[in-house]
């Protein structure tokens, strides 16, 4: 392994299927147009969202009845689609939350074995102490 290989980081972009529950999570609390949702995802920590794929994914979510949309013409300028989570979307989100909770347990077990002195609360407390 060369020193260049050691410096390379794996590409850890958000997987497309993980993007769906993050989108639904944001739509659970507010009805927004696509661009606003994209900004919320970026603030959440999702990096490098391809605009074309993002809107295709929104259309697919609508086809799958996980979200609905309607045109908003109340603001000045062109009409915008406002997206809303459906009951089926909420159920899908609940299933993901349960799955992620189970996955979190596995991650906690992994890190406990990997580094028995690491705990998220200890790590957070250490960062606060450094400030």
UniProtKB/TrEMBL annotation:
Coiled-coil regions listed in the entry? none
- Gene3D superfamilies named in the record: Winged helix-like DNA-binding domain superfamily/Winged helix DNA-binding domain
Q: Give the Transcription regulator PadR N-terminal domain ranges.
A: 24-93
The protein's matches in InterPro entries, at most eight in alphabetical order, are given as:
Metal_resp_DNA-bind_regulator (IPR052509), Tscrpt_reg_PadR_N (IPR005149), Tscrpt_rep_PHB_PhaQ (IPR014091), WH-like_DNA-bd_sf (IPR036388), WH_DNA-bd_sf (IPR036390)
Top-level division of the source organism's lineage: Bacteria
Spell out the Pfam families in the cross-references: PadR (PF03551)
Query: Transmembrane segments in this chain: where?
Result: none
What is the protein's given name? Poly-beta-hydroxybutyrate-responsive repressor
Q: Which organism is it from?
A: Caryophanon tenue
Q: What is the lineage of its organism?
A: Bacteria, Bacillati, Bacillota, Bacilli, Bacillales
